[in-house]
Fold:
Amino acid sequence: MQLGKNDDNERFIDENLRRVYEETVEEGIPDKFKDLLKKLKEQEESSGQPATGKSE
Amino acid sequence: MSRSDPRDELVEHLPAMRAFAISLTRNSAIADDMVQDTVVKAWTNIDKFEVGTNMRAWLFTILRNTYYSSRRKANREVADVDGVFTESLAEKPAHDGHMQMTDFRKALNELAVEQREALLLVGASGFSYEEAAEMCGVAVGTIKSRTNRARAKIAELMGLRDDESLEMTDDATMSVISSSKVSSF
Structure:
Protein backbone atom coordinates (compact mmCIF):
# COMPACT_ATOMS: atom_id res chain seq x y z
CA MET A 1 0.00 0.00 0.00
CA GLN A 2 2.64 2.43 1.10
CA LEU A 3 4.85 1.18 -1.67
CA GLY A 4 2.17 1.96 -4.24
CA LYS A 5 1.90 5.55 -3.08
CA ASN A 6 5.62 5.99 -3.07
CA ASP A 7 5.65 4.72 -6.63
CA ASP A 8 3.06 7.35 -7.52
CA ASN A 9 5.17 10.04 -5.91
CA GLU A 10 8.22 8.80 -7.72
CA ARG A 11 6.43 8.83 -11.06
CA PHE A 12 5.07 12.31 -10.39
CA ILE A 13 8.51 13.62 -9.45
CA ASP A 14 10.27 12.02 -12.38
CA GLU A 15 7.68 13.25 -14.88
CA ASN A 16 8.05 16.80 -13.63
CA LEU A 17 11.79 16.46 -13.57
CA ARG A 18 11.89 15.37 -17.19
CA ARG A 19 9.59 18.20 -18.22
CA VAL A 20 11.70 20.80 -16.46
CA TYR A 21 14.81 19.34 -18.06
CA GLU A 22 13.28 19.02 -21.52
CA GLU A 23 12.06 22.61 -21.41
CA THR A 24 15.58 23.77 -20.77
CA VAL A 25 16.98 21.53 -23.49
CA GLU A 26 14.41 22.83 -25.94
CA GLU A 27 15.42 26.41 -25.27
CA GLY A 28 18.40 25.56 -27.43
CA ILE A 29 21.73 27.24 -27.06
CA PRO A 30 22.91 30.82 -27.39
CA ASP A 31 24.65 31.57 -30.71
CA LYS A 32 27.90 32.22 -28.89
CA PHE A 33 28.43 28.49 -28.53
CA LYS A 34 28.29 27.89 -32.24
CA ASP A 35 30.60 30.86 -32.71
CA LEU A 36 32.98 29.35 -30.17
CA LEU A 37 33.08 26.01 -31.97
CA LYS A 38 33.67 27.79 -35.26
CA LYS A 39 36.50 29.80 -33.74
CA LEU A 40 38.15 26.70 -32.27
CA LYS A 41 37.98 25.02 -35.63
CA GLU A 42 39.43 28.02 -37.45
CA GLN A 43 42.25 28.39 -34.95
CA GLU A 44 43.23 24.82 -35.46
CA GLU A 45 43.09 25.04 -39.23
CA SER A 46 45.20 28.18 -39.30
CA SER A 47 47.81 26.68 -36.99
CA GLY A 48 47.82 23.59 -39.20
CA GLN A 49 48.29 21.49 -36.14
CA PRO A 50 45.65 19.06 -34.99
CA ALA A 51 44.98 19.68 -31.32
CA THR A 52 44.18 16.04 -30.72
CA GLY A 53 47.74 15.15 -29.90
CA LYS A 54 47.33 12.11 -32.13
CA SER A 55 49.63 11.48 -35.04
CA GLU A 56 48.06 11.16 -38.45
CA MET B 1 42.49 13.96 -43.74
CA SER B 2 38.74 14.34 -43.56
CA ARG B 3 38.06 11.31 -41.41
CA SER B 4 35.29 11.78 -38.93
CA ASP B 5 36.19 13.99 -36.02
CA PRO B 6 34.36 13.21 -32.74
CA ARG B 7 34.35 16.95 -32.11
CA ASP B 8 31.76 17.36 -34.82
CA GLU B 9 29.39 15.66 -32.41
CA LEU B 10 29.94 18.27 -29.68
CA VAL B 11 27.27 20.62 -30.92
CA GLU B 12 24.54 17.99 -30.52
CA HIS B 13 25.22 17.78 -26.81
CA LEU B 14 25.24 21.49 -26.07
CA PRO B 15 21.55 21.86 -25.14
CA ALA B 16 21.77 18.92 -22.72
CA MET B 17 25.03 20.26 -21.28
CA ARG B 18 23.42 23.61 -20.75
CA ALA B 19 20.40 22.05 -19.03
CA PHE B 20 22.71 20.07 -16.76
CA ALA B 21 24.81 23.16 -16.02
CA ILE B 22 21.72 25.20 -15.17
CA SER B 23 20.55 22.49 -12.82
CA LEU B 24 23.89 22.54 -11.04
CA THR B 25 24.33 26.29 -10.80
CA ARG B 26 20.69 27.40 -10.81
CA ASN B 27 21.92 30.39 -12.75
CA SER B 28 21.88 30.51 -16.53
CA ALA B 29 24.67 33.08 -16.92
CA ILE B 30 27.08 31.07 -14.78
CA ALA B 31 25.88 27.90 -16.50
CA ASP B 32 26.69 29.35 -19.92
CA ASP B 33 30.22 30.24 -18.79
CA MET B 34 30.66 26.73 -17.50
CA VAL B 35 29.46 25.18 -20.73
CA GLN B 36 31.84 27.42 -22.62
CA ASP B 37 34.78 26.29 -20.47
CA THR B 38 33.70 22.69 -20.95
CA VAL B 39 33.57 23.05 -24.71
CA VAL B 40 37.10 24.42 -24.81
CA LYS B 41 38.37 21.66 -22.51
CA ALA B 42 36.62 18.98 -24.53
CA TRP B 43 37.94 20.42 -27.78
CA THR B 44 41.54 20.51 -26.66
CA ASN B 45 41.39 17.16 -24.85
CA ILE B 46 39.49 15.22 -27.46
CA ASP B 47 42.32 12.69 -27.64
CA LYS B 48 41.27 11.61 -24.15
CA PHE B 49 37.82 10.73 -25.42
CA GLU B 50 37.48 7.06 -26.31
CA VAL B 51 35.66 6.87 -29.60
CA GLY B 52 32.69 4.58 -29.31
CA THR B 53 31.96 5.45 -25.69
CA ASN B 54 29.22 7.78 -24.52
CA MET B 55 30.25 11.30 -25.43
CA ARG B 56 27.49 12.89 -23.41
CA ALA B 57 28.70 11.12 -20.28
CA TRP B 58 32.23 12.31 -21.01
CA LEU B 59 31.10 15.90 -21.51
CA PHE B 60 28.91 15.87 -18.41
CA THR B 61 31.89 14.60 -16.43
CA ILE B 62 34.05 17.49 -17.61
CA LEU B 63 31.20 19.88 -16.90
CA ARG B 64 30.67 18.70 -13.35
CA ASN B 65 34.42 18.73 -12.66
CA THR B 66 34.45 22.32 -13.88
CA TYR B 67 31.56 23.11 -11.60
CA TYR B 68 32.97 21.48 -8.49
CA SER B 69 36.44 22.92 -8.90
CA SER B 70 35.10 26.43 -9.32
CA ARG B 71 32.82 25.88 -6.37
CA ARG B 72 35.74 24.75 -4.25
CA LYS B 73 37.57 27.89 -5.28
CA ALA B 74 34.67 30.13 -4.49
CA ASN B 75 33.97 28.14 -1.36
CA ARG B 76 30.70 29.89 -0.95
CA GLU B 77 28.41 26.95 -0.56
CA VAL B 78 28.48 24.60 2.38
CA ALA B 79 29.26 21.09 1.27
CA ASP B 80 26.18 19.11 2.07
CA VAL B 81 26.56 15.70 0.55
CA ASP B 82 24.06 14.04 2.82
CA GLY B 83 21.50 16.79 2.83
CA VAL B 84 21.75 17.31 6.57
CA PHE B 85 22.01 21.06 6.32
CA THR B 86 19.13 21.32 3.89
CA GLU B 87 17.05 19.03 6.03
CA SER B 88 17.39 21.20 9.08
CA LEU B 89 16.52 24.32 7.10
CA ALA B 90 13.48 22.89 5.43
CA GLU B 91 10.06 23.91 6.63
CA LYS B 92 6.92 22.01 6.11
CA PRO B 93 5.03 23.67 3.29
CA ALA B 94 1.40 24.57 3.55
CA HIS B 95 -0.46 21.93 1.64
CA ASP B 96 -3.31 23.33 -0.38
CA GLY B 97 -3.99 20.23 -2.40
CA HIS B 98 -2.61 21.66 -5.61
CA MET B 99 0.86 20.94 -6.80
CA GLN B 100 2.33 23.82 -8.69
CA MET B 101 5.14 23.48 -11.14
CA THR B 102 6.80 26.44 -9.51
CA ASP B 103 6.72 24.52 -6.25
CA PHE B 104 8.41 21.66 -7.99
CA ARG B 105 11.18 23.87 -9.32
CA LYS B 106 11.56 25.44 -5.92
CA ALA B 107 11.80 22.07 -4.23
CA LEU B 108 14.32 20.92 -6.81
CA ASN B 109 16.45 23.99 -6.21
CA GLU B 110 16.42 23.44 -2.49
CA LEU B 111 18.06 20.05 -2.77
CA ALA B 112 21.73 19.67 -1.95
CA VAL B 113 23.50 19.92 -5.27
CA GLU B 114 24.79 16.35 -5.08
CA GLN B 115 21.24 15.09 -4.71
CA ARG B 116 19.88 17.29 -7.47
CA GLU B 117 22.69 16.15 -9.72
CA ALA B 118 22.08 12.44 -9.03
CA LEU B 119 18.35 12.82 -9.56
CA LEU B 120 18.86 14.69 -12.79
CA LEU B 121 21.37 12.26 -14.23
CA VAL B 122 19.25 9.23 -13.44
CA GLY B 123 15.73 10.61 -13.55
CA ALA B 124 15.92 13.01 -16.49
CA SER B 125 19.08 12.58 -18.53
CA GLY B 126 18.59 8.86 -19.02
CA PHE B 127 21.86 7.66 -17.50
CA SER B 128 21.98 4.40 -15.61
CA TYR B 129 22.93 4.31 -11.94
CA GLU B 130 26.23 2.80 -13.02
CA GLU B 131 26.96 5.55 -15.53
CA ALA B 132 26.00 8.25 -13.04
CA ALA B 133 28.22 6.66 -10.42
CA GLU B 134 31.16 6.65 -12.77
CA MET B 135 30.57 10.23 -13.80
CA CYS B 136 30.38 11.38 -10.20
CA GLY B 137 33.24 9.20 -9.04
CA VAL B 138 31.20 7.52 -6.33
CA ALA B 139 29.73 4.08 -5.66
CA VAL B 140 26.51 3.00 -7.33
CA GLY B 141 24.90 2.72 -3.89
CA THR B 142 25.75 6.37 -3.23
CA ILE B 143 23.95 7.45 -6.39
CA LYS B 144 20.95 5.33 -5.41
CA SER B 145 20.79 6.79 -1.94
CA ARG B 146 21.22 10.36 -3.21
CA THR B 147 18.44 9.79 -5.72
CA ASN B 148 16.16 8.33 -3.07
CA ARG B 149 16.90 11.17 -0.67
CA ALA B 150 16.26 13.68 -3.44
CA ARG B 151 12.87 12.17 -4.24
CA ALA B 152 11.94 11.93 -0.58
CA LYS B 153 12.97 15.54 -0.02
CA ILE B 154 10.94 16.81 -2.97
CA ALA B 155 7.94 14.79 -1.80
CA GLU B 156 8.33 16.32 1.63
CA LEU B 157 8.77 19.87 0.38
CA MET B 158 5.76 19.55 -1.87
CA GLY B 159 3.65 17.96 0.81
CA LEU B 160 3.37 14.68 -1.06
CA ARG B 161 2.73 12.07 1.55
CA ASP B 162 2.36 8.37 1.54
CA ASP B 163 -1.23 8.44 2.72
CA GLU B 164 -2.45 11.10 0.37
CA SER B 165 -3.48 10.91 -3.21
CA LEU B 166 -2.17 13.26 -5.84
CA GLU B 167 -4.89 15.69 -6.59
CA MET B 168 -3.56 17.23 -9.72
CA THR B 169 -4.63 15.66 -12.95
CA ASP B 170 -2.30 15.30 -15.88
CA ASP B 171 -4.16 18.04 -17.74
CA ALA B 172 -3.79 20.43 -14.89
CA THR B 173 -0.15 19.54 -14.54
CA MET B 174 0.39 20.15 -18.20
CA SER B 175 -1.21 23.58 -18.12
CA VAL B 176 0.82 24.66 -15.14
CA ILE B 177 3.96 23.43 -16.78
CA SER B 178 3.36 25.04 -20.13
CA SER B 179 2.57 28.38 -18.52
CA SER B 180 5.85 28.65 -16.69
CA LYS B 181 9.11 29.32 -18.41
CA VAL B 182 12.39 27.93 -17.24
CA SER B 183 14.83 30.42 -15.95
CA SER B 184 16.07 28.81 -12.83
CA PHE B 185 15.93 25.12 -13.42
Q: What stands out?
A: Chain B touches chain A through 43 residues (CB under 8 Å).
